[in-house]
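Quick one, tokens below:
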């Protein structure tokens, strides 16, 4: 009986030390985080996880944040993925996980993460904003490189978002893309205006189709933002050209 009691006492003492050790590691991690000592904070959290097998949701998220600050993006992805699985600060976890992929130039994974996040949080403006910035910048870059078709695919992705401003900007970009392509065709055909009128008429016909398609998108942009001077001006110029 004495041996049994001794065993129970030792066991209880071990559990007490175990719990105390875990609490000290967590508190040390939190203290280091508040001091912006991200390296030490991450070390403490990871030591804490070895004791508790990573079951503390808040600490898992904090560890992911520290990893981001330390530019250890692979580790950040792992911990933010756990936060998503834990359903803890889900929106922020999706957002920072996507940013971690972006920092590694992993575009496909970044986009997939944001799209997954929007399935879980439909219409979330923070997640939509990242997709908006990414595809609008990419589309603009492709447009400048005279890759209009590829650019418009990017703008169409933005147009599927729910946020009014994002959709409006996407519709304007689509409209301007079609109109710009039409303008380029007419500019190239201009030398034929007096010498090869049939050729000029043929090329202008192609341009007019593009302008009309552009006007459709510009009307959508104006429906969302009636005060858009850019959309108004582009539409006016398009209408003058197709008369």
């Amino acid at each position: 009986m004495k041996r049994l009691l001794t065993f129970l006492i030792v066991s209880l003492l071990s559990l007490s030390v175990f719990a105390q050790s875990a609490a000290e590691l967590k508190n040390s991690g939190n203290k280091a985080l508040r001091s912006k000592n991200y390296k030490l904070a991450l070390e403490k959290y990871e030591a804490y996880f070895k004791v508790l097998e990573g079951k503390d949701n808040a600490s898992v998220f904090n560890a992911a944040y520290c990893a981001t600050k330390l530019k250890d993006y692979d580790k950040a992805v792992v911990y933010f993925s756990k936060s998503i699985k834990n359903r803890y600060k889900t929106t922020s976890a999706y957002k920072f996980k996507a940013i971690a992929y972006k920092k590694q130039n992993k575009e496909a994974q970044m986009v997939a993460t944001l799209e997954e996040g929007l399935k879980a949080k439909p219409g979330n403006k923070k997640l939509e904003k990242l997709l908006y910035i990414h595809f609008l910048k990419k589309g603009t870059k492709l447009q400048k490189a005279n890759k209009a078709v590829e650019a418009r695919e990017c703008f169409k992705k933005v147009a599927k978002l729910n946020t009014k401003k994002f959709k409006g900007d996407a519709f304007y970009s689509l409209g301007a893309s079609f109109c710009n392509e039409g303008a380029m065709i007419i500019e190239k055909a201009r030398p034929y205006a007096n010498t090869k009128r049939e050729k000029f008429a043929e090329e202008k016909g192609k341009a007019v189709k593009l302008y009309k398609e552009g006007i459709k998108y510009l009307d959508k942009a104006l429906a969302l933002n009636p005060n858009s001077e850019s959309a108004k001006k582009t539409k006016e110029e398009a209408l003058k050209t197709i008369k």
